[in-house]
């Protein structure tokens, strides 16, 4: 939600967070997610982002910037330390048994 440039951290916008939450709950994206994955989309992160943006409104600007910086660093550390998608793939030494598939005439 917050954007980070070289030395400037922008505070998250409550309106942007509200729009993201509303978009998460709209019918078409929910139905697409249900069709593809068999469950409705989880909008908990969008809800957390909205409550986080609203909670910053009661803080001073310096305090809010420090909180946002800490949250961004935590997200970055979590993203780096999570298991990467490379661990899912196994390297094959030879092609699968029926590859390419035989076409029946």
**N-to-C order of helices and strands:** HHHH
The mean pLDDT is 86
Approximate shape: elongated
Number of strands: 0
Please tell me about this protein's structure.
By secondary structure, the protein is an all-alpha fold. The protein has four helices and no strands. It has helices at 14-25, 27-37, 44-55, 61-81. Pfam families: PANTS-like (PF11326). InterPro entries: Pants/Emi1-like.
Gist of the model:
The protein has 105 residues and is mainly α. The protein has helices spanning 14-25, 27-37, 44-55, 61-81. Pfam families: PANTS-like.
SSE layout:
Elements lengths: L13 H12 L1 H11 L6 H12 L5 H21 L24
Helix pairs in contact: 1-3
Which features does this protein show?
mainly alpha; 4 helices; 53% helix
């Amino acid at each position: 939600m917050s954007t980070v440039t070289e030395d400037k951290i922008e505070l998250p916008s409550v309106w942007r967070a509200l729009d993201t939450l509303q978009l998460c709950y709209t019918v078409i994206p929910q139905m697409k997610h249900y069709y593809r994955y068999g469950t409705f989309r989880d909008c908990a992160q969008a809800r957390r982002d909205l409550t986080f943006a609203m909670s910053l409104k009661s803080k001073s600007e310096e305090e809010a910037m420090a909180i946002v910086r800490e949250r961004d660093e935590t997200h970055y550390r979590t993203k780096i330390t999570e298991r990467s998608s490379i661990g899912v793939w196994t390297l094959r030494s030879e092609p699968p048994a029926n590859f390419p598939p035989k076409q029946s005439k």
